[in-house]
């Protein structure tokens, strides 16, 4: 009973402590309770992102454990320049891409950015509105039928709510490359949607 109340008290006392503060305390003390709180806060979101990219529960559970092992091993390198969640998402994204590559499920296309203008085309707004009108069930089918790198971009932007700047940090790409990637992913999604449901 005493352990139960201690656990409840610890949860309450750390509820208002920021991720950055928990990281600092862990780096200073190496006390695993700080890392445990970070894990409890973020494991379900990381698992959800793994599941959305890998489409397999067992693989996603394995990936979750591998990702938090990477976070633990590399937390000393976290420099507070980005949000902790952005840093963890970067590790999640890269790990899932590695898993997919190893499984032979993905072939990367070379991006041709030479002719890209940073200005979005007029029909881009229309494409985005059309994408948002697609029913959730149909959208899942569409996302599962496009290349995983395109799916990941759309999930980062529309499900994860990441800014272009955050996506640039995660993907280690320029702003123009990220914008072009999102544009192409939207175009592929809409083409696939029309092909499947129109």
What is the secondary structure topology, with strand pairs?
Elements lengths: L1 H13 L4 H11 L2 H23 L2 H18 L9 H20 L19 H11 L2 H9 L3 H12 L4 H8 L3 H23 L1
Helix pairs in contact: 2-3, 3-4, 3-5, 4-5, 5-9, 6-10, 7-10, 8-10, 9-10
Beta-strand fraction estimate:
under 5%
H-E order: HHHHHHHHHH
Determine the CATH superfamily of the largest domain. Answer: RNA polymerase sigma factor, region 2, helix turn helix motif
Overall tally of structural domains: 2
Give me the oligomer status.
single chain
How helix-rich are the residues, as a percent range?
over 70%
Instruction: State the major sheet.
Output: none
Global geometry: elongated
CATH class of the largest domain: Mainly Alpha
Q: Classify the fold: give the CATH topology of the largest domain.
A: Rna Polymerase Sigma Factor, Chain: A
* Rounded radius of gyration (Å): 19 Å
The strand count comes to: 0
Low-confidence segments: 4-9, 105-123
CATH-scheme architecture of the largest domain: Orthogonal Bundle
Q: Average the pLDDT over all residues and give the rounded result.
A: 79
Number of helices: 10
Question: What is shown here, in short?
Answer:
By secondary structure, the protein is mainly alpha-helical. The protein is built from 10 helices and no strands.
Characterise the protein shown here.
The chain has 198 residues and is mainly α. The chain has 2 domains: 102 residues, RNA polymerase sigma factor, region 2, helix turn helix motif (Rna Polymerase Sigma Factor, Chain: A, Orthogonal Bundle), CATH 1.10.1740.10; 75 residues, Arc Repressor Mutant, subunit A. It is 75% helix and 0% strand. The protein is built from 10 helices and no strands. The longest helix has 23 residues.
